[in-house]
Amino acid sequence: MERRVKNEKEIRMKKGLNRRNLFKYMGAGGATAVIAGCEKKPEKLIPMLVPPTDYEYTPHTAYQYMTTCRECEAACGMMVTTRDHRAQKAEGNPNHPINQGTLCARGQASMQSLYNPNRQAYPLADGKQIPWEEGMQQFSAVIQAASGAITYLGKPAVGSEGSFVDEWLQAAGGGKRIKFNLLAQTSLAEANKIAFGRADIPEYAFEKAGVVLNFSTDFLETWGNTVENARRFADMHAYKNGKKNRFIHISPHVSLTGAKADRWVVIHPGTEGLVALAIASVIREENGSHKFLKNYLKEYVPEKVADATGVSAEVLRELAKEVIEHAPLLALGGGNVTATDQGVETLVAVNILNAVSGALDNTIRFYDQAAPEGSTHQDLTQLVSDLNAGKIKLLIIDDSNPVYALPHSMGFLKAMKKAFVVSLASQKSETTHAANLVLPTLTAYESWGDAFPRAGVRSIQQPVMSTVNTFDAKAREDILLSAAQSANEKAFPRNSNYLDYLQDVWSKIQREVGDERNFDSFWINVLENGGIFEQPKYISTSLNRKVTSVKVNDPGMADRDGLTLLPTTSLLLGDGSGANKPWLQEVPNPMSQIVWDSWMEINPETAQKLGINDRAIIEVTTPHGSVHVTAYYHFGIHRNAISIPMGQGHRHSGNVADGFGINVMELLPNKMDNAGSLVFVGTQAKLKLINEKSYTVNTDGNARQLGRDIAAAATVEELAHGGGHQEKHNRPYEFYPDHSETAGYYKPYRWGMTIDLDRCNGCSACVVACYAENNLPVVGKVRTAIGREMSWIRLERYIEGYGDDFETRFSPMLCQQCGNAGCETVCPVYATYHNPEGLNAMVYNRCVGTRYCSNNCAYKVRRFNWFNYEFPAPLDQQLNTTITTREVGVMEKCTFCVQRIKAAKYDAKNLGRDLEDGEVVTACQQTCPTKAITFGNLMDPESKVSKNALRDDTEKRDRQYEVLAELNYKPAITYLKKVNTREVGGHHSDSQGSHEPKQTHG
Amino acid sequence: MKIVSYSLMLLNTIFILWRTFSAGLLVSALCMALNSSTVFAEEQPIAFSHKLHAVQNGIACQYCHLYARRSFSSGVPPVSTCVGCHGPHEQKLVQPESKEVNKMRDFWSKKEPIPWVKIHDVPDFVRFPHKEHINADSNRLLDDAGGGCDTENASRSLECKLALFRTGGDERCLACHGDIRQMDVIQQVDENFGTMGWCMECHLQVKGAKERKRTGNTMAGWYHAKEMNAKREATIGLVNDKGYHNPNMLDCYTCHY
User: InterPro entries given for it (chain B) (predicted)?
Assistant: First the structure.
């Protein structure tokens, strides 16, 4: 942390010049200073002592290892690129059936949990550094002293670690394991048990559905496996063959997921269940199925629930009609916004809707094997009272952060002080800060593990590199193992470390899958593939007759005094564990475009009634606490509700997380639903204006397109009549011939890209991937505020329309690699020029930093290095060694991942052939969960990108457009328009812009 | 007042100059121009003789520099390679009494790498792949390139470098590094080693390179480009006799990215 800006938390950067040096150079004179810097200091060549011989090693060469991402419970397969023994880039494992080679933003940023400067570096006893031996002695001693009064608090196990800890607890003299995950699906599993007799999470086959009704889930952000959801949802929802399937968002809040919806039905908070049953009742009347529900559903006919839900009976019947018309249906329910005190009942109601409309065994299928264990927050209540009663002597908290994540009204921190707390954690957190003994653990990149997230998927987690040398950490399971073995000689007689234990488990798996080879070759095969992947088996289920005993009531939140608080999940920060990763803080939230902060979404109508302006500081008070937070105008929220995203407001998680935003958990009650899930919705908040202006930083200049049509859309009707087709822009007469007509250009490659805005859902994985691949520095909140962010690709978000009928559009914006670029002609030193392969090349060592190019770039994608940005150790070990890390005074911008093009070309040349389609994959394209980005050679008529960008079939042709085509920059990126099923209200007032209520400003 | 404003202007100019040059890249480019007039050699931690190893004992370059054909870097041999022949203190094999070899054994027993001084240094903003040069197809050179080499009088002439490159094998290393086999002390023989002009000397001796250069991003390239297209492309060496496109070695992105 730089001292000069001590109060503005920023990633540290070197100051170019200090006062003392200025005078020094002034005295010497400029020219002398230059020459004085010229003493040739020869560099050193430091060889290795012994080369690694256990596997082939070549310097500067990429090696890939398969492992499993452990940032959330979804357990995507990961393929990590290492160079010179350092993991440098995480990508999805293409063999893995869940994510199929792609990763989300958090998965990309998992790199920064490995190299995070705020990792726990050494063992701590009461806040003081101690050697490992002493830490282990203390740990064994407290295990023996606790004599069975041990509680182990950790995440729900996805792999073998659960049974390992259970065995360990037995060996340690007994105790209890409590599973804690803030964003749990326990209520959903409970609802499935009631409705279908399966306490399990089914498969959601989006691609089979004709219409998706989404009851407040955020399935593209944090609910379930978001990467898989995104892919399958895009397959269902994307425009094809002149048709577009329907996605209707029924919720009091529009999150990133809701932003993709064709229609938003605003309902009162907590009434998802009533709406689902009302629709179900109409459908059942129509199709006459499930006769035993007849009387039950009579209670929920649209006319009866219309008042409670705030949706008129006509609209409810219309929705039912739509479901019948576009069947099959997939109805989804769950997530934070449905987590009221009748959360389980709500989800049972959604299940009834699915069953009645025939979605069961069609778009929703249960696996024949149970899902991994869920979390039970009821145990936490018990734990707190046990702790307070002094029943627990030793509390082991493993890699979770309950001090931060639990509602503060629960009193966990106070109760925790009553026991001896051992924290096993890789990252600093509020919990490690409060623990008596902290034993630093390794991250998933450095340790062994496995994950069985669902039937048919067995994923292995292997260390992809040796441990990061600045951290003195050990694998969690190995710490437990040696502590148990020193306390009890008989513990784990067959295992000397966790790998032994794991191999025991996997030799059982080998027998299960009927593999006849010896174990070693099986094991190598597993490591190569990243696991064992089989087709899952499904079982048929039907609706339980007893569901009729489940009563869904009107929660009546909309009528209560005050505004209902909806704590929403955060796409980037997750439950808060992402907050210490600089990339995730720096990348703007795609919906609000706000960086390094929290905000409170409020409907502009409500806000103006209350006299609250956009970006004012508001005191939000609930019976459980109060916080100061920035108001953010958002059409997508119920008029009697506010929403605050989770994940910020850390106090002891290191300098990247601490002090930014607020923690919404401070406002919540200590309350559980029937399944033991935390109740998030149901608290009323009062607002008080504190200050008219806040220091909130967002990266969008304007939320409106102002007629520029940057993120364009067409409706299905327009496309059906060929109306979306824009005549090719009339190019003015040109003095110079086109590059394609010039000798030496575009032979054989002209690199191009297409971005399908109908598939893009704004998840920002591409942005984080670009940070990881291209050594982009993180500049912090203050410098982002003055427009000095360094992202090469950004997700632009535009809002169309007003009020409830608004539309959100996303458009990834990166260097367009123009054929007729504005930047090239104004560079006085030819540092940027059009290269023979159509790349708008940027030569850093030629650049003198005039910044003319940036001035003349219409797309505003060029970034200037105002400083020598620092990558605080060990983050520098992540830097991609195949490209230059830029220094102060030079421009930089997207290169279409030229290092990947070069590497592929070298390989192809050595094989004696030209590049084939698909051999060069850019980092953004690689990670895109919906495959919205296509990259390739435009000169090859058979390449995928040519088919998207050039093909003359109506489907593609009518959707193709170039951003700001009228400037005649001839961009190499062709966008495919988003396809809407409606005209958005107020669309045409767009060009006037000034009519809008203050939505956002820069 | 005037003095104050003049001095402020001067200060400002100096500051802007300083800011510009502090980019580092320009500084190194300038320094290269200033420093390139001397043949460069430095005292090494061990008086290692390439002549002794490569000529008298006939060890091939890539026996020790084993990554040259596989990677961007040629690889400074790990200390264990030295120990492989010479043996550690406990079990001295080749040259048991040599003072210099014992220095190496000292490093080995201290488990320290040897801090060799880098003599052949290309700037950090250049990505130089050893492997692509070792594996390059010498048929891409102009047919008469390297023909006029006069080894006696001008052994470091362009023609001789090209001739060495054409020969292939370990001779190819000498094309850029000079006759390392005759060096007791490693030194940089080409005065302008590692400068762009020095690289381009050879790269312009590739078939089609000069023609391609003329069609670059200058107005000359655009001028009548359409009419000249077919003719130029025939002479430009875009496609080689094996049927795939030759890599373009004149584009900045070839080395600077």
Answer: Multihaem_cyt_sf
Numbers of helices and strands, H then E, in chain A: 32, 43
Answer yes or no: do B244 and A914 touch at CB < 8 A: yes
Instruction: Looking at the complex, report in whole angstroms how far the Cα of residue A657 sits from the nearest Cα belonging to chain B.
Output: 32
- The per-residue pLDDT for A278 is 95
Which A residues in the span 761-780 are in contact with B, Cβ-Cβ below 8 Å? Answer: none
Q: How many domains does chain B have?
A: 4
> Which structural domain, as residue segments, surrounds residue B242?
209-254
C-alpha dist (Å) from residue A514 to A10, A353, A532: 55, 40, 12
The 3-class SS string of A841-870 reads: EECCCCCCCCCHHHHHCCCCCCEECCCEEC
Whole-number Cα distances in Å, A553 to A232, A392, B29: 33, 39, 76
| Cα diameter, chain A | 95
Q: Per-residue pLDDT tens for A537-584?
A: 999 999 999 899 999 998 888 888 889 999 999 899 988 899 999 999
pLDDT at A997: 42
* Whether the Cβ atoms of residue A617 and residue A600 lie closer than 8 Å to each other: no
Across the interface, do B253 and A741 touch by the CB < 8 Å criterion?
no
Q: Is B22's Cβ below 8 Å from some Cβ in A? A: yes
Note whether B73 contacts A60, CB cutoff 8 Å.
Answer: yes
Min distance B52 CA to chain A CA atoms (Å): 21
**Between β-strands A150-154 and A175-179, what pairing exists: parallel, antiparallel or unpaired?**
parallel
Q: Check whether residue B66 and residue B173 sit in a common domain.
A: yes
Alpha carbon distance A938, A920 (integer Å): 13
Nearest to B14 among A26, A748, A890 (CB): A26
Contact A46 B229 (CB under 8 A): no
**How far apart are alpha carbons A994 and A286 in whole angstroms?**
48
Q: What pLDDT, in 10s, does the model give residues A475-496?
A: 999 999 988 888 777 888 888 8
Q: Which tokens belong to A977?
A: 């328009």
Domains belonging to chain A, first-starting first, are 124-184+374-513 (3.40.50.740), 191-220+227-363 (3.40.228.10), 560-669 (2.40.40.20), 713-729+755-991 (3.30.70.20)
Min distance B149 CA to chain A CA atoms (Å): 29
Q: Which residues of chain B are within 8 Å of residue A841 when distances are taken between CB atoms?
A: 251-253, 257
**Does A23 contact B at CB distance below 8 Å?**
no
Pairing of the two strands A150-154 and A394-398:
parallel
Is the CB of A59 less than 8 angstroms away from the CB of B72? yes
Mean pLDDT, chain A, rounded, equals 88
**Cα separation of A604 and A611, whole Å?**
10
Amino acid at A984: V
Residues from chain A that touch B215, judged by Cβ atoms under 8 A, are 742-745
Provide the 10 A C-beta neighbour count for residue A56: 9
Statement to judge: residues B18 and B141 lie in one domain: no
Q: How far is A909 from chain B (nearest CA, A)?
A: 8
Residue pair A818/A971 in contact (Cβ under 8 Å)? The answer is yes
Q: How far apart are CA A500 and CA A522, in angstroms?
A: 15
pLDDT digits (tens, 9 = 90+) for A42-76: 788 888 888 776 556 788 889 999 999 999 888 99
User: How distant is the alpha carbon of residue A450 from its chain centre?
Assistant: 22
Same domain, B72 and B82: no
Residue A47 confidence (pLDDT): 84
Q: Which residues of A touch B253 (CB under 8 A)?
A: 835, 837, 839, 841, 843, 898, 902
The more confidently predicted of residues B22 and A191 is A191
My answer on whether B130 and B173 are in the same domain is yes
Does A37 contact B67 at a Cβ distance shorter than 8 Å?
A: no
**Out of A47, A830, A882, closest to residue B79 by CB:** A47
Residues from chain B contacting residue A43 (CB–CB below 8 Å): 117-118, 121
* pLDDT 10s digits, A462-477: 999 989 989 999 999 9
